């Protein structure tokens, strides 16, 4: 049995300000209006004849991922394995291998897919998966190697070797990101393939390879597995045990040294969507080389990409730029330096700036909130609570809150009192007071929340009860 394993944990810092820690790259919508997470889930479903799909992700991303999957395939029940913190792909794949082994046996195969890549040719992808699966049955550790379309310096490469018949080739070596001259040589030789981070192997084969090449990682993950409660969905890995796992990629930990490695070449319209240059390639280009998503006016400008979700962007006499406006942040960069956007995130993180983490609209398990104003003396939010959504029972030490119901019926607890509020009704919540809000109805509840006090950070939330497990 072939089980897709979707790895969803990258921050996508090169795609700031759209991709941020609290709403990273897999949740970005592309030109077709579809998120990368939805695209990957749909692609995985199309490669198998059942609906058993495992996603390895963090608790912070679980609820949004689950909701996206339900929109794609409402009748499926995707499985989730939640990491308490990121430990790179070797640990994630090791944990997934134990999950697959326990449910489907040691000879079940895993199709490992990053959640934030794009594949345009599903049929070519499926054909490559079938070849990879046939090799995996025989015990090979298989990579899907993308045929290069140009000399690319931003990807690692796989040097293909001896033929394995119609299925693929043995791997001679993994090669790090080359310079431009070397990349051109790789491209012209037709012996090298892009390493796309897509793998296929039996659960026992990858576990055996980890035991040989990275025994400390496997031992630490196995110890975590023994301490983990495994009878529910999602399965949450035991945090104290998982904290001891060494962070390493599966490439470095296993694939670069394992003896039975194979690659299946594929031309499937693949992109890692790794930079704003890659994003711009998805859009139509006008006669001046410009691409626009959203609202923009370009005058006497060339080779410029503009994405604006809300406001109008006007550019006059500019060339070779990337301009991205999300309403709360604007990025302006030379196209050739788009890979360096992650340095902006590093600087924002150093300054402890919220824009490295949050968007103006933040998704929560119960719905979402949008920051309408964020000043030194107050913060104003619009909360949208979906039917059945319940905020945690919580209190704040540094702020008071005032709720006004805009629409719907809200059930509110303040201290020991519980009561309902309808449109235009309000309630005051003093600092230090326990409170909770829920939506018992069939329509969204919308609330305007005004915070006053000395500090408004999201870490000033003390949760005492939470149906979503965030206590």
Structure notes:
The protein has eleven helices and 27 strands. It is α+β, with helices and mostly antiparallel strands. The protein has three domains: 2-271, Spore Coat Polysaccharide Biosynthesis Protein SpsA, Chain A (Alpha-Beta Complex), CATH 3.90.550.10; 276-344, no CATH class; 360-465, Jelly Rolls. Strands 17-18-19-26-21-24 form a six-stranded antiparallel sheet, with no helix packed on it. A hairpin with a 2-residue loop joins strand 17 and strand 18 (367-374). Helix 3 (88-104) packs across helix 6, helix 3 (88-104) packs across helix 7 and helix 6 (203-213) packs across helix 7. The longest helix is centred in the N-terminal third of the chain and has 17 residues, at 88-104. The two termini are 37 Å apart. The model has no long low-confidence stretch (mean pLDDT 95).
Sequence-ordered SSE layout with sheet pairings:
Blueprint: E1 2-8, H1 36-46, E2 54-58, H2 59-72, E3 79-83, H3 88-104, E4 109-114, E5 118-119, H4 122-137, E6 141-146, E7 157-163, E8 169-175, H5 180-189, E9 192-202, H6 203-213, H7 215-227, E10 235-236, H8 239-242, H9 250-255, E11 261-266, E12 270-271, H10 276-280, E13 291-299, E14 305-316, E15 321-325, E16 330-334, H11 342-350, E17 361-364, E18 367-374, E19 378-385, E20 393-395, E21 399-407, E22 410-414, E23 417-421, E24 426-429, E25 435-438, E26 445-453, E27 462-465
Parallel strand pairs: 1-2, 1-4, 2-3, 3-10, 6-11, 13-14, 14-15
Antiparallel strand pairs: 4-9, 5-12, 6-9, 7-8, 7-9, 8-11, 15-16, 17-18, 18-19, 19-26, 20-27, 21-24, 21-26, 22-23, 22-25
Helix pairs in contact: 1-2, 3-6, 3-7, 6-7
């Amino acid at each position: 049995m072939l089980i897709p394993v979707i790895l969803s944990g990258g921050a996508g810092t090169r795609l700031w300000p759209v991709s941020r820690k609290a709403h990273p790259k897999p949740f970005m919508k592309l030109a077709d209006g579809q998120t990368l997470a939805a695209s990957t889930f749909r692609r995985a479903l199309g490669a198998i004849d059942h609906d058993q799909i495992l996603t390895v992700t963090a608790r912070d991303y679980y609820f949004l991922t689950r909701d996206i999957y339900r929109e794609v395939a409402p009748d499926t029940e995707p499985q989730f394995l939640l990491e308490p913190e990121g430990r790179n792909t070797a640990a994630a794949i090791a944990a997934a291998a134990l999950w697959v082994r326990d449910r489907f046996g040691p000879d079940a195969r895993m199709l490992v897919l990053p959640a934030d890549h794009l594949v345009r040719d599903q049929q070519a992808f499926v054909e490559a998966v079938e070849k990879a699966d046939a090799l995996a049955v025989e015990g090979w550790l298989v990579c899907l190697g993308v045929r290069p379309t140009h000399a690319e310096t931003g990807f690692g490469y796989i040097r293909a070797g001896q033929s394995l018949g119609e299925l693929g080739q043995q791997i001679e070596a993994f090669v790090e990101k080359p310079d431009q001259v070397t990349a051109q040589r790789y491209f012209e030789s037709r012996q090298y393939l892009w390493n796309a981070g897509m793998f296929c192997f039996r659960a026992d084969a990858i576990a055996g390879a980890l035991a040989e090449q990275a025994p400390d990682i496997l031992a630490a993950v196995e110890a975590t597995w023994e301490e983990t409660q495994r009878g529910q969905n999602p399965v949450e890995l035991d945090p104290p045990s998982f904290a001891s796992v060494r962070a390493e990629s599966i490439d470095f930990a296993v694939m670069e040294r394992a003896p039975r490695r194979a690659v299946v070449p594929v031309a499937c319209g693949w992109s890692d969507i790794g930079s704003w240059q890659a994003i711009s390639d998805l859009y139509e280009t006008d006669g001046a080389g410009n691409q626009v998503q959203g609202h923009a006016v370009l005058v006497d400008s060339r080779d410029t990409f503009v994405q604006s979700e809300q406001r109008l962007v006007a550019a006059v006499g500019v060339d070779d730029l990337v301009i991205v406006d999300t309403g709360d942040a604007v990025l302006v960069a030379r196209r050739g330096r788009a890979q360096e956007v992650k340095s902006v995130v590093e600087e924002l993180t150093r300054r402890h700036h919220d824009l490295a983490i949050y968007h103006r609209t933040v998704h929560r398990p119960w719905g979402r909130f949008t920051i309408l104003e964020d000043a030194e003396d107050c913060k104003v939010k619009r909360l949208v609570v979906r039917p059945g959504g319940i905020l945690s029972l919580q209190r704040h030490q540094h702020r008071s809150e005032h709720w006004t119901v805009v629409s719907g019926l809200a059930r509110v607890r303040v201290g020991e009192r519980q009561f309902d509020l309808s449109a235009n009704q309000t309630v005051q919540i003093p600092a230090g007071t326990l409170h909770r809000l829920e939506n018992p109805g069939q329509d969204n509840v919308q609330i305007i929340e005004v915070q006053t006090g000395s500090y408004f950070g999201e870490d000033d939330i003390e949760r005492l009860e939470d149906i979503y497990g965030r206590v």
